[in-house]
Design a protein that fits this description.
Rossmann fold; 12 strands; 347 residues; alpha/beta
Length: 347
C-alpha cells in the first residue's frame, strides 16, 4: 500500500507527525510512505527510517515563480500513484499538493484553514478535547486506516528514529574537539524564533549555576542558529563559570540532532530543537509562556519531560512579541530552582 504524506513545514510540526506514521506502520507494516516536505527540511524528515521517498517542495524557488522548479516538483509528485494521500498541514498550499497528487483517497482535517478542505474526499473532525498537535495527527492517521478498511493498533510503540552515521560522526568530532566527554551532557536551547518565547539569559544562567553546583561533572553545550549565537554568548557570560561551550551556529541540522541524541537532557525554550530531542526520546525541561504546552509541548509519555510555566497573567498570549514589552514578563516569577531540580532528576 502506497501512502503520500503531505507536511511541508515547520520543524516542530514535522516532528509531531512521526507518531502518526508509527500508527500507520503499526496497523499496516507493509505500507510504503512518501513524504512531501520543504526542501530546507527534507534532511530532518529522514529521521523516520521507514520512508520510501522524500519529495522536496521548492518553496523559495516557487516563491520566485521558477517554472523549472514547478515542473520538477510536479513531475516528482505525479510520478507515482497512491492508495491515499493524507494532508497533516491543512493549509491552502498543502491542499493544492494533495489535490494534484494521483491518489484514490484524499484525507485531511475538517479544521483545515485557507479552504484546504476542497482537496479532500474525507475531512476529519478531531474531538474538541484533543489539544496536542501530535495527538491530532495520530487521530487523523487512525481515521485513514479505518477508511482503508484497516484496524488501528491500540497503544502502538513510539517511533524509533534513526541517525545517519555521518551525523553521528559529526557529533563525535564536535564532542572531542570541545572536550565535552567525561560527564553527563546537558544541551541548552536559550533562543527561539519568537522573541516572546526566548526567556532571559539570566534565568538560564541561574538554572545552570544551580545544576553545576549539585552536579559538578556535567558538560554543558548551547545550541542555536548563527543568528542566535549572540544570545547564547549572553548566557555564557551571565553564568560566569567554566565548562560551557557555545555551539550556536556551528552545527548543521544533522550534527545538532546527533548531539541531542548524545545528551542526557535538554533545557530549552519552546523551539524546533525541543521537538527533535523529544522525538529522539531525550528528556526536555522546557520553558513555556507565550505558547501552550498542552498544544505544542514536548511530546512523550508522562514523566519524561517537565514544563516550567510562566506565571505572567497573560500567558499564553500567542504573540510573537511580548505584549507587555517586558523581557522578564514570562520568566520574572518562574522558579529557577524548579527548572534546576527537574534537570538534575533527568541527568
Amino acid at each position: 500500500m502506497k501512502i503520500l504524506v503531505v507536511k511541508p513545514s515547520s520543524l516542530g510540526d514535522i516532528l509531531h507527525t512521526f507518531p502518526a506514521l508509527a500508527e500507520l506502520h503499526a496497523a499496516c507494516p507493509e505500507a510504503r510512505l512518501t513524504w512531501v516536505a520543504n526542501d530546507s527540511l527534507a534532511q530532518i524528515v529522514q529521521l523516520y527510517p521507514r520512508l520510501e521517498k522524500v519529495i522536496p517542495f521548492p518553496r523559495k524557488a516557487l516563491g520566485k515563480f521558477s517554472l523549472r522548479a514547478l515542473r520538477g516538483f510536479l513531475h516528482d509528485l505525479r510520478s507515482d500513484e497512491y492508495d491515499a494521500v493524507i494532508d497533516f498541514q491543512g493549509l491552502l498550499r498543502s491542499g493544492i499538493i494533495t489535490w494534484l497528487a494521483h491518489a484514490r483517497m484524499r484525507i485531511g482535517f475538517a479544521q483545515a484553514r485557507e479552504g484546504a478542505t476542497f482537496a479532500y474526499h474525507h475531512a476529519i473532525e478531531t474531538p474538541p478535547s484533543m489539544t496536542h498537535a501530535a495527538d491530532k495527527n495520530r487521530y487523523l492517521a487512525r481515521a485513514l486506516l479505518e477508511k482503508l478498511g484497516l484496524t488501528p493498533v491500540d497503544n502502538p510503540p513510539e517511533p524509533l528514529l534513526a541517525l545517519p552515521q555521518e551525523w553521528q560522526d559529526g557529533a563525535e568530532e564536535c564532542i572531542q574537539r570541545h572536550r565535552l566527554d567525561g560527564g553527563p551532557l546537558l544541551a541548552v536551547g536559550c533562543a527561539s524564533r519568537w522573541s516572546s518565547k526566548s526567556w532571559a539569559p539570566e534565568f538560564f544562567a541561574q538554572v545552570l549555576r544551580q545544576v553545576r553546583s549539585q552536579c559538578p561533572e556535567v558538560r554543558i553545550w548551547l545550541l542555536g542558529s548563527p543568528d542566535e549565537r549572540g544570545r547564547a554568548q549572553e548566557v555564557c557570560a551571565a553564568a560566569a563559570m567554566e565548562g560551557i561551550v557555545n555551539l550556536a551556529g556551528e552545527t548543521d541540522l544533522g550534527t545538532l540532532a546527533a548531539l541531542l541524541a548524545r545528551s542526557k537532557a535538554l533545557f530549552t525554550n519552546d523551539s524546533g530543537p525541543m521537538h527533535i530531542a523529544a522525538g529522539l526520546r531525550i528528556p526536555c525541561v522546557a520553558n513555556f509562556g507565550s505558547t501552550d504546552p498542552d498544544k505544542t509541548g514536548p511530546y512523550g509519555p508522562a514523566g519524561r519531560h517537565h514544563v516550567v510555566r510562566s506565571r505572567c497573567p497573560e500567558a499564553p498570549c500567542f504573540r510573537r512579541e511580548c505584549p507587555r514589552k517586558d523581557p522578564l514578563a514570562c520568566c520574572g516569577q518562574a522558579s529557577p530552582e524548579e527548572a534546576a531540580q527537574a534537570i538534575l532528576e533527568r541527568l
